[in-house]
Amino acid sequence: MKKWMGIRWLHFISVLGLLLLMTQSAWAKGESDWGVRITPTNNAAQIEPEAVITLSFSQQIKLASSKEITEKALVSAIQLTDAKKKKVSFTAKWNKTNRSVTVDPVGNLEAGQTYKVTLLEKKLKDTKGQLNPEVSSTFSTKKPVDLIPPKAVILPGDGAKQVKLQEKITLQFAEDVFLKDGTILSSKTAAGLIQVKDAKGTVIPHTVTWNKSKRTITVKPKGASWLPHTSYQINVIGGQLKDAEGNVNPSQSSRFSTGATK
């Protein structure tokens, strides 16, 4: 019985040792072979543009020359570049207690961009005297949030005078726009967005054409021309369009007066 218990105890010890070995292996894979972790981690996305970068070491380190770490030396040992491999300026702060370097870009990183931080090869030395390999992490920042409502540039502009009788009114958007329910805009649906009135408030019959590729609404009076020496106002009804980010268009208006010539 004692012999059987001894065998079971040896089996338990063997299994425990194997589990410890697997745990150590998992930890090693979480770091570089030399013992440095970079945050943000490789392929991380949606990083805040104002975030800082941290390099954490598993043991105390010195410069390759065996001298103590200085922040000036760290700026030479670490490289931060954008997607075009252009260097990004930063400051580096060394925390000896935590064995970490904080890389703080000068100014915030650009939103919606990709960056790479690299610990250059053979710049640092660990307690075993081993020089570091090159270690890097590539990450991307959050895309900028669009909070600007879609507005049209209206021509003729507000207050324009001596407008030709056959001149078209154009409303051009700088971005793709959709109806508020998400459906694609058409000439038929665009007609409901536009009002044209004269100085007395009389509604002027008109036609509306939507050009998707140019993101332009064209307005022409029925009868092919405006009346001479007449003031008109074009209104864009607000809350009927939205952009890809869900921003809704505001109400807009523009006044112009015609001349005597075609």
Describe this structure in words.
It is built from 3 helices and 20 strands. The chain has helices at 2-30, 71-77, 187-190, and strands spanning 36-39, 44-47, 53-57, 62-63, 78-82, 90-95, 100-105, 114-119, 124-125, 135-141, 152-155, 160-163, 169-173, 178-179, 194-198, 206-211, 216-221, 231-236, 241-242, 252-258. The chain is an alpha+beta fold and 262 residues long. The strands form 6 sheets. The chain has a 4-stranded antiparallel β-sheet. A 4-stranded mixed β-sheet has the order 2-10-8-5. Helices cover 15% and strands 36% of the residues. Strand 16 (206-211) and strand 17 form a beta hairpin. It has 2 domains: 34-141, Immunoglobulin-like; 152-258, Immunoglobulin-like, CATH 2.60.40.
**CATH class category name of the largest domain:** Mainly Beta
Report how far apart the termini are. Answer: 115 Å
**Helical residue percent band:** 10-25%
Number of domains: 2
Cα radius of gyration in angstroms? 33 Å
Overall mean confidence score, pLDDT: 89
* Unreliable residue runs: 20-32
SSE string, helices as H and strands as E: HEEEEHEEEEEEEEEEHEEEEEE
User: SS-based structural class?
Assistant: alpha+beta
**Largest sheet features:** 4 strands, antiparallel
The number of distinct helices, counting runs of at least 4 residues, comes to: 3
Annotation, overall tally of beta strands: 20
What fraction of the residues are assigned to beta strands by DSSP? 35-45%
Quaternary assembly:
single chain
Q: In which order are the strands of the major sheet placed?
A: 1-3-7-6
CATH architecture tag of the largest domain:
Sandwich
CATH topology of the largest domain: Immunoglobulin-like
